[in-house]
Amino acid sequence: MNVKNPHNVLAIDGAFSLQINNELKSIYDRHCQCSCDGAEWVTLQRKGPGLNPDLRMNLMYSDYESASKGLLRGCVEHQNCAWWVKSSTRPDNPGARNLLIRLWDCVFNWMEHIVSVLSAEHLKWRPGRLELELEFPGIETWQIEDTAKLTGTPADLSFHFEPATATARLIFIQKFLPKFYRADNLAEREIVSAIVRCSAGIARVEVPESELQRIVACVTKNQDSRFFHIVSSKTLESALGGPEHATPAFIPLEEISRVHIGLAHLAYNDPPGRITIQSEAQVFLDKIVANLQGSLVNRLKKFNILPIVSHSFSQLDELSRDRTRWSLSTRSLFALEEGATWLQDRLRTESGRLARAEIANRVLIETAVYSHEPGATEIVSQTEHASLLAHIAVMIELANHRDAIAGGFVAADLKIHPNGMIEFDDSFQREVFQPYLTSRVDDRIRWDAETYDTNFEPPVTEPTPSDEVSPQAGAFERAFLAEFGFSYGKITSIIDYFYNTAVSQGNGGGTLDFRAFHYLLKHEIGLTDPQIDTFVEWVLAGMKGKPPRSKSINAIMVKPDGEIWKYTGRGLSLYRHQGRYCVIGCGWEFALGAMAHGASAPEAVKLTIKFSSFLGGAVQTLRLHPPSRTGKK
To answer: Is 90 exceeded by the pLDDT of residue 168?
Structure first.
């Protein structure tokens, strides 16, 4: 069948989706459950697939309809048991609201484990119906960042229960929070103990203290298991990211699959069905990679560069925050699941997703910088941004396989399907490269688990550096200065300045125009004008290679017929200027606005000097004469 024939008709039987629909129903299991007091039927839905792939272990269901009205309510269902946990408090403060949700989620998770253990070991302690309400008096004024500074003995968790109504209350106060700020799970053992006591009390059963402690230990398993963390953030992204959970946007798998369709047609209009010769396979993949890169550059030309770069940098922050979340949770997850094989696989998968998205965003930033059009105004959408990332991911995948074939690491065997998709042997990736990456990821997972305690250690004061410089450091500094024209210490000074600025302003992102950047480098970092020119050239060139020694030039070139061209040395571009007025240099916005309102060029410059702190001196005027009538230049 000719896949390019527009008259083709494809009929798909709906039976293929039956298994998919059944899987979705099993995963989310939407159904109704009678409330604890029997007054209403509540629509519940499983919170999601969860960490554990075994759905039989996922007993937690949420009331999403009530959540939209400000009521947090969930239910743990097991056999003929339905335990509810809810909180009707809704703080206006986003930080307090997020803290409340996290504590509610912590109790909800422990309730699931308690129900499972009591069902297996103490069925008489487990009433069939129970409603646990969480109260947070004064949570609007809680300062979670001050938890480590709270003095005095931490408060205990208060609880009350009413056997007649099968209801119980847990009362959290701020002075209970310090029990979370420690490496062991003291606070969560106390939460589990309180819930078990309430359960036994509602069931009207006397609980021996020794047996209670045994059940608590059976639920929590050890001192490392936990669902709620209060730690001192060690990353700038986490410190400035706000109280909410990270919201990373991973590369959609369906978009990657879509990009794979028709790849072969990027190389040939009528590609062969199979390629087994090394040189032909290399050329074939090389053409596809080159066309993918060219297509990416062309797509980026229509977009304003700032939203693309800002969104990618924002996503890098979110990916870093999400990586920190997994890092903090590693030890507790292994403690809860007792080192299950599926958990190790899940951590590896998440690490791969994070790395893939991070690389794609960094490549997108770099590509956007050198491929954008200065006059582009279209704003990239989140959907288009995700599509660009998928485009880059596929391009990297094919480039890697091309290199593997060229290096002789894998045989050239490309199977090309009629829809243009390419199937190839991934044995090198699977048998050689993937085990290496897995080993590196496993080392990181092990390190995260082993170093969890360090999150609660006081910050180490760095020793005051001495004036003595080692011979090796001195030799490196001299070589760096000779090659790049400024010392390596200037780079660390710039990094420290931006870091301190981000912390003081509480904002990890933003933009600087060139005037502000120039002022920063000169007055805050201490670079001279020639050093600034050299540094900026080096950055714009991707911080690779030897930067140019001459100053950058911004110029307006006027042809004899009046046609205007602009040359931006720092942008490394020459383009024809469209518009009645043309302005370059510091304060160009002021001058352009003045000329648009009737000011002459000298008047516009004078006004710009008046309103810009970066300009001064006398105004110089150069008049361009029209071409001579003899035609001579």
So the answer is: yes
Amino acid found at 6: P
Cα end-to-end distance, the chain, whole Å: 64
Taken in order 52, 55, 56, 57, the sign of the CA dihedral is positive
* Of 395, 397, 426, residue with least CA distance to 409: 426
Buried b (16+ CB within 10 A) or exposed e, 217-252: ebbbeeebbbbbebbbeeeebbbbbeeeebebbbbe
Return the CA Rg of the chain: 32
Report the run of H or E that residue 521 belongs to, with start and end: none
Cβ contacts of 219 within 8 Å, gap of 6 or more: 110, 113, 114, 117, 192, 196
Structure tokens at 309: 């770069």
What are phi and psi for residue 99, nearest 5 degrees? Answer: -60, -45
How far is the C-alpha of 498 from the C-alpha of 537, rounded, in Å?
Answer: 19
DSSP H helices in 275-425:
278-301, 305-337, 341-371, 382-406
pTM here? 0.71
Of 189, 186, 166, nearest in space to 178 by CA:
186
- List Cα–Cα distances, 24 to 16, 135, 139, 250, 569, in angstroms: 14, 35, 38, 21, 56
The segment with the largest mean pLDDT, out of 105-109, 526-530, 612-616, is 105-109
Helix (H) or strand (E) holding 168: strand 167-171
Tokens at 601, concatenated: 């060029």
Task: Name residues whose C-beta falls within 8 Å of residue 209's C-beta, 6 or more positions apart in sequence.
Answer: none
CA dihedral 525, 531, 537, 542 (to 10 degrees): -50
Query: Could you please report the per-residue DSSP string of 281-296?
Result: HHHHHHHHHHHHHHHH
Average pLDDT of the residues of the chain? 82
Residue 283 near residue 271, CB atoms below 8 Å: no
Q: What is the pLDDT of residues 50-108, one digit of tens each?
A: 777 777 788 899 999 998 888 999 999 988 899 999 999 888 888 888 889 999 999 99
Q: Which of 26-35, 182-191, 586-595 has the highest mean pLDDT?
A: 182-191
Q: Which two tokens stand for residue 240?
A: 């400035």
d(CA 242, CA 224): 26
The closest of 280, 274, 262, 304 to 419, measured between CA atoms, is: 262
Which is it for the CA torsion 20, 26, 27, 28, positive or negative? Answer: positive
What backbone phi and psi angles, to 5 degrees, belong to 607? Answer: -65, -40
Identify the DSSP state of 506.
T
Q: What are phi and psi of 502, to 5 degrees?
A: -60, -45
| Three-class DSSP labels, 595-606 | HHCCCCHHHHHH
> 419-424: which pairs have CB atoms within 8 A and are 24 or more residues apart?
419/3, 419/261, 419/262, 420/3, 420/261, 420/262, 420/263, 420/264, 420/265, 420/271, 421/260, 421/261, 421/262, 421/263, 421/264, 422/260, 422/263, 422/264, 422/288, 422/398
Asked whether the CA dihedral 280, 283, 287, 292 is positive or negative, the reply is positive
